[in-house]
Amino acid sequence: MTELSVLADRVAGLKDKPVLCVGDAMLDRFIYGAVERISPEAPIPVLRIEREAAMLGGAGNVVRNLVALGAVPTFVAVVGDDDAGREVGRLLGDHAGIDPCLVVESQRQTTIKTRFFASAQQLLRADRETSQALAATSVRQVLDRAGTLIGRSGSVVLSDYGKGVLSVPVPAELIKVAKECGVPVVVDPKGTDYSRYRGATVLTPNRKELFEATGMNVADDAGIVAACRHLITSCGVGAVLATRSQDGMTLVTGDGQVHHLPAQAREVFDVSGAGDTVVATLAAVLAAGGSLLDGARLANVAAGIVVAKVGTAVAYADEVVAALHHDDLCLGETKVLGWEGARDQVEIWRRKGESVGFTNGCFDLLHPGHISLLTQARAACDRLVVGLNSDASVARLKGPTRPVQSEAARATVLASLSMVDMVVIFGEDTPLDLIRHLRPDVLVKGADYTVATVVGADDVIGWGGRVVLANLVEGQSTTNTIKKMNGK
After folding, report:
1. Which of 49, 136, 441, 443 shows a CA-CA span of 20 to 30 A to 152?
2. What's the pLDDT at 353?
3. Residues annotated in a binding site
């Protein structure tokens, strides 16, 4: 097996591995709209708001990444007794794979980061937060809850965003318990005094944080290695994985090993949350019994996927495997995607101002009628997503002798067509759930339908999209082709 194949197998081994994450929970809000004029009140743009979204941020994004990789995270964090804290709880509840243990501190403001976007550009970020240390009762609750969970975990992540949850003495006490249990600890550090993470297995500072913590020159490889070694010696940690943006990552271990990993991203669209992806991937690999180097390599691949996405995004296990198996592919070039990866890619296209079209079918034996439909569909939008019925779905709709080709074969053929930008397989009898999941701007079906009978038409029109009925090529169908093949 090649080294990449071994790493791909390692991804499969992350499934169901328990990881404890302790850190600062945040609520990330995204407000999207259009700017068409300047305010008469001041020289500032007027944002006409079109839609809003919210997701888990901070340490919450670490657990989202753990779930995406197949791990089973437990999350210990602190929120305020406010609407934002309750929304964090609701969002955690939406992820079946996360076991949340939230401590509510009544005098605390749940951290909210609100980002305003127009025409694929971020106009403004507004933060609302509390950053002081926890109250004594909250400290005890965090230590008690996390302390009982460490022994059941394969690894521990301390995700420090400097909002107070990991203030002294919390990190030291959790690291002590983890060492007693033989559980590795991954720390995403904050501030300048890393001695409070003494005993951790690995720290993951970025270049700027490494400079702030050491005051050393980190402009080149030699400087990075020297600064990492200084932290290992002065702070008593096992290793440092320094993330270096376009220069990749550097892993320096306490036994003297140095590994420089080149950057994996082909297109950098948004670096938000990439550090969360790194610590989540590293922790998941350690929980599965992997080495620090394997963890760093997979984290490097996962980070390359995430920076091509929008906002506080995640890297899914199948995306990481695809990137490993296809060195010349990255997320933006991969056409056959799962539902979550597809939604992320659709959001990237929208942020670039591109319209997204959707059509669907069985596409069993590709014929000129299919090509005509897909060509017309692509002409109606900037990007075309094809929803493909799974084998089981085709059998229910067409009978037990169908499909002629497997869903993998049909997806491969569709993905090879220049007019198709993405293929997503669905197992239901209709694509309604997938349409609602992706929220396309244009819905395309053949002219043998009417707008009233097109599945999902009401939904698409309801969120401001449109329905296009494509002209049909007379006499073309897979059923007729099969009849001719059978001499009927």
Report:
1. 136
2. 82
3. 206-209
Residue in the block written with tokens 């999350």: 75
Q: What is the mean pLDDT of the chain?
A: 89
Q: Is 276 a catalytic residue?
A: yes
Specify if 442 maps to a domain.
yes
Q: Provide the number of structural domains found in the chain.
A: 2
Residue 320 within a domain: yes
Distance separating alpha carbons of residues 254 and 241, to the nearest angstrom: 11
- Residue 442 near residue 383 (C-beta atoms within 8 A): no
Judge if 434 and 324 occupy the same domain. Answer: no
How would you classify the pairing of strands 18-23 and 155-159? parallel
Q: 285 and 417: one domain?
A: no
pLDDT in tens, 37-92: 999 999 999 999 999 999 999 999 999 999 999 999 999 999 999 999 999 999 99
Adjacent-strand bridge partners of 171: none
Active-site entry in 276, 344, 364, 391: 276
- Boundary-marking domain end, from 299, 315, 331: 331
Low-confidence ranges of the chain (pLDDT < 50): 1, 327-333, 482, 485
> Are 463 and 437 in contact, with CB atoms under 8 Å apart?
no
At 271 the pLDDT is 57
DSSP string, 412-454: HHHHTSTT--EEEEE-SSSSHHHHHHH--SEEEEETTS-GGGS
Domain range for 284: 3-26+57-110+131-331
Answer whether 0.85 is exceeded by the pTM: no
Would 50 be classed as within a structural domain? no
Binding residues for ATP, as ranges, are 206-209
